[in-house]
């Protein structure tokens, strides 16, 4: 289970595979200077609510992975996540499809 740390104050746990994919999407958006919302659901053990944060290029975001190997990235899933990030509702975690994967850390620049 990896951790996303936002503005040094908020931490959230995500599966390493999910975290790797949202890192690519968040990085692409912030690299272009775009701000956006990111919403996810809490685990049932902590209330089953949801959290929304405003991601901005000036606010630090850190990713800590449990595993030592980078997961293979699924280009189609990244594109689906990017579509949500580009919407007015912001980035939301959608289910992964079974599309072909790409090499760890390799993603098209146009995402």
Task: Write the SSE topology.
Blueprint: E1 2-6, E2 10-14, H1 16-31, E3 36-41, E4 50-55, E5 61-64, E6 73-74, H2 75-85, E7 91-92, E8 101-102
Parallel strand pairs: 3-7
Antiparallel strand pairs: 1-2, 1-5, 3-4, 6-8
What's the total number of strands?
8
Principal-axes geometry comes out as: globular
Number of domains: 1
What is the N-to-C order of secondary-structure elements (H for helix, E for strand)? EEHEEEEHEE
Q: What is the mean pLDDT?
A: 87
Unreliable spans: 102-111
Strand content: 25-35%
Largest sheet: 3 strands, antiparallel
Distance between the termini: 25 Å
The main sheet orders its strands as: 2-1-5
Number of helices: 2
Cα-based radius of gyration, to the nearest Å: 13 Å
**Share of helix among residues?**
10-25%
Task: Give a verbal description of the structure.
By secondary structure, the protein is an alpha+beta fold. The chain has one domain. Helices cover 24% and strands 29% of the residues. The strands form three sheets. A three-stranded antiparallel sheet has the order 2-1-5. A three-stranded mixed sheet has the order 4-3-7. A two-stranded antiparallel ribbon has the order 6-8. Strand 3 and strand 4 form a beta hairpin. Residues 102-111 have low confidence and may be disordered. Keywords: Ligase. GO terms for molecular function: ligase activity. This is ATP-dependent DNA ligase. Residues 1-96 form the DUF7882 domain.
């Amino acid at each position: 289970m990896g951790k996303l740390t936002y503005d040094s104050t908020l931490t959230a746990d995500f599966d390493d595979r999910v975290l790797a994919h949202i890192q690519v999407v968040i990085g692409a958006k912030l690299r272009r200077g775009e701000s956006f919302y990111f919403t996810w659901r809490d685990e049932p053990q902590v209330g089953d609510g949801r959290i929304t944060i405003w991601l901005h290029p000036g606010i630090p975001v850190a990713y800590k992975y449990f595993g030592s190997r980078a997961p293979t990235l699924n280009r189609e899933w990244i594109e689906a996540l990017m579509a949500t990030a580009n919407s007015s509702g912001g980035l939301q975690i959608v289910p992964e499809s079974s599309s072909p994967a790409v090499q760890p850390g390799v993603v098209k620049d146009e995402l």
